[in-house]
Write a structure and sequence with these properties.
The chain is an all-alpha fold and 130 residues long. The protein has one domain. The protein contains six helices and no strands. Helix 1 packs across helix 3, helix 1 runs antiparallel to helix 6 and helix 3 packs across helix 6. It starts with a helix and ends with a helix.
Length: 130
């Protein structure tokens, strides 16, 4: 393959990756606006979440930060239970459907970010990214 074809493929991969990250962010905002009340109601005995509950009124960035905190408590409960930031009962009673959505959303973001970093590294190596 010629260098020009590879550069074009690199461009399309980068645009696709960036577009996927925008969609991921949109899905996160949708979940933060539609399901935040249920998340907060289910984790009402978790100080790590309730201390940040006021971020719900801080706009889109605040809601995403609060949802990230919920993902942290749900995905890694041992760390929060150990220091008293989470309630075992609240975590066990958290709906499985919502837990799965949050964890899949988080993992998809990690994969997309990793892909973007990999793409950037390849671009740096090839001299296409300055």
């Amino acid at each position: 393959m010629s260098n020009e074809v590879l550069r074009t493929m690199f461009l399309y991969l980068g645009l696709t990756e960036f577009g996927a990250l925008i969609v991921w962010l949109g899905v996160g905002l949708y979940m933060a606006y539609t399901e935040m009340d249920e998340m907060l109601a289910r984790l009402k005995n978790c100080p790590a979440i309730m201390n940040r509950a006021s971020l719900k009124r801080a706009g889109p960035a605040g809601r995403l930060f609060l949802m990230g905190s919920v993902v942290g408590v749900i995905a890694w409960p041992a760390m929060y239970i150990r220091d008293g930031g989470a309630s075992i009962e609240d975590i066990n009673n958290f709906p499985r459907r919502l837990r799965r959505k949050l964890v899949v959303w988080y993992r998809a973001g990690a994969v997309l970010l990793g892909g973007l970093l990999l793409l950037w590294s390849v671009g740096q190596y090839m001299g296409w990214v300055k």
